[in-house]
Amino acid sequence: MKRLSLWLLWVSLALTVSYANTASAAIFTSLEREVSFCVRGQTVRGVLTVPAEKDASSPAILLLHGFLGHQNDLRVYGTTDGLYPIVARCFAQAGLVTLRFDFRGSGESDGNWEETTFSRQILDAQAAVDFLIELGNVNPEKIGAIGLSQGGLVAACLGARDDRIGSIALWSPVAIPIHTYGHLLGFQTLEKALLVDETLTSPISWGGTTRLNSAFFREMFEIDPLAEIASYQNPLLVAVGIEDPIVYPQPESGELFLTYHPGEEALLVFSCDHIFNLFSERAILDALIDETLLWFLRTLE
To answer: Strand runs (DSSP E) across the chain, as ranges?
Structure first.
């Protein structure tokens, strides 16, 4: 284990409070517009957020949402905004372009949720990179990605497969799919999916049910984000919460990415849940956003 990669270890609220908002002081005005692009005949819809007064081409960051999520979900405590709208605004004020979008089958994008697979979402993310480069106001050599949870799995694979990705931040990323989704959706459902080719209804550990095709479950054995990250040599930031009930144990799960990643890297460890306590407080999330922003400003500028 490369212990030098433990760049910052935050396990108390008192430490995170002092960091909040240090990186996100507004320099530019954030400007949003709805955008869309096509992937295999289906429309992917998202929101592009830019620093309005910036004339030169800017670094750009993809924001990849998690399992059963969408581009504007996870309303943050004390606000009417979701997680990624807040990230987008902070990043634009510091001079970075962001693109958040709904994977096909999620949110406002075309497609059916049942058809979701890891490989399908990776393809969507690659198309999003194409879209960013075609804009003209984005520096094609300075593109990064943030992935939350399953979005972290996608971001890790994107970095390995697309050499246009210059820096990545993985927030509570899925490291071992069979472990995470086996507990999340039930190992009995997984076992059945390996025997049949159909759409399965599965209970979710946090409540309710979801329907997914067998292909989603089979890809748990075919796509390995840890093996993929071994092929990604650009800077990697991983952020985890030690009280995460979905991707666990932590920080060991997050450290796995650093074990296999060959390049510059850092690990942030917070005393929080899978989504950084954003439903109940702001301090940890503010610290996470600020440190991630600083990471991209340093590794992409």
So the answer is: 8-9, 30-39, 42-51, 58-64, 97-101, 138-148, 165-171, 199-203, 209-213, 236-241, 265-270
